[in-house]
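Dear colleague,

Following up on Tuesday's group meeting, I ran the structure prediction for the two-component complex that the binding team flagged. I've pasted the input sequences exactly as they went in, so you can double-check that nothing got truncated or mislabelled along the way. The structure tokens for the whole assembly follow below. Feel free to forward this to whoever is handling the docking comparison.

Inputs:
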Amino acid sequence: MTPPKPHRVLLDRVSGYADEAAAYMRRRRAARRPFARLYYAGGRAEDHATDSAAAGELFVAAGRLIEVAGRRPKS
Amino acid sequence: MADDGMAAQVSPGAARGALAYLTEMSPDLRGAAILGRDGEVLAGSGEPGRWRDDAAALFEIADRAGDEPVEQVHIGTEQGEVFALRHAGLAAVAVTERFALASLTFFDMRTMLRDLAGETSQPTFVGPEHVESPQREDGDFE
């Protein structure tokens, strides 16, 4: 069995790094996506699509509360 | 504020102490408030009056979004996360940094409200005889 050509090793390594970076960006995008979840008695939960009217209103209301809370006071 | 539970009689001092303790325990917490059945602010960081109106608006929108009154609300935005919870006629609203542990935050908030409602035999958040210990006095709560 012949060893892989040197340029192949380099290409594999570079494409490996690129794959890692792409996966990181995908995870980051998913994690930063806004969400609105409502929970009801009995444990039922409802996830509202971010482009729905209800979610839009919830984001606005949440934004006001975030503004009220401000930054965490320094201890 | 819709909640089937009986409204607990909670003194503002006990609510302030519980909220200060919650803040002390939660490094991700930016601000929070405890509200009574009529939406009045029992304790809150910053400007209590603003918590009242904005929390009421959040619960009102959340109730309208479904076919029954909501029990918990969790909203995440790029600016932070909002947690709201109703229990025993009381309500708690908290704003945290992004990526706070949701289950832990809700657990602490629920425990706090249960303590204030007198449902627990060994309260975590409310001191004996509702005395505010010096450690729980944050000074930032109205």
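The mean pLDDT of chain B is 84.

Cheers,
M.
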